[in-house]
Design a protein that fits this description.
Largest sheet: none
Helix content: over 70%
Order of helices and strands: HHHHHHHHHHHHH
Shape: globular
Amino acid sequence: MSKNTLWGRLALLAAAMIWGSSFFILKDALGDMPVFLILAVRFSVGFALLAALFRRRLLRMKKEAVLHGVVCGVLLFTAYAFQTFGLRETTPGKNAFLTTVYCVLVPFIGWMLFRTKPSRWNWLSALVCVIGIGLVSLNESLTMNRGDALTLICGVFYALHVLAVGRYTRTEDAIALTIVQFGASAVCNWTLSLLTETMPSSVPSGALLDLCYLAVFPTSIAMLLQSVGQSVTPAAPAAILLSLESVFGVLFSVLFAGELVTPRLLCGFALIFLAVIASETHFSFLFRHRKDGLP
């Protein structure tokens, strides 16, 4: 493994770890600040930091590319809003794993939009994922709480966002597109925050620290790490490393937020994780090893 490849994989692992840490921190911040205000500040800071670092790329964007960035930004805003409202009524660990369902949904939504037929692996992944969701979310009366349902809806919009970004980055600068979508998302969040939320008269210092962390690390730094990592890492191992976000989400929630994980939840988490890996990689890394004569 070359040095660039190693650093690329470490960058992806770091991005997954940072994103995983954000769930319990965001849960804590929601006790002191309203949803849209948190997201507005988060994306505003992310936009400002990246625009300052890559202003030349931003200035070179054409009008059509800006419009594409706005589309991605609106989808990103919607996904984050559903995810964050869902987090208010569920645990950080469940929120982390249910969010990753978007990886399984992408092939099927792509089928509806672009007529690209899902593979047998995608169908198998969907079946395994549904069983995992049932174990994680359904209670004894086979109903789902509102937080889990909102998180699953967020997965649909994340899938749409992934498809839009994948389509537009074929011809547009990925970093410039990200800056515009951060800006568009910030505008959407500020608008709804001013229209629907009451600004808190004071914010505890702990909540401000949480907000600073969320704005700088999961939003800006993790995105840069993902971009750098994926530029030198094949798709299959990149997908595996990035999907560890959900595992880190549970781990940090158990260690720092006191979340209790039952055997049933663990089984559900394991099935969702396997479904994501199967959908994203088709376990090609195992088959490649066999072909190469490796154990």
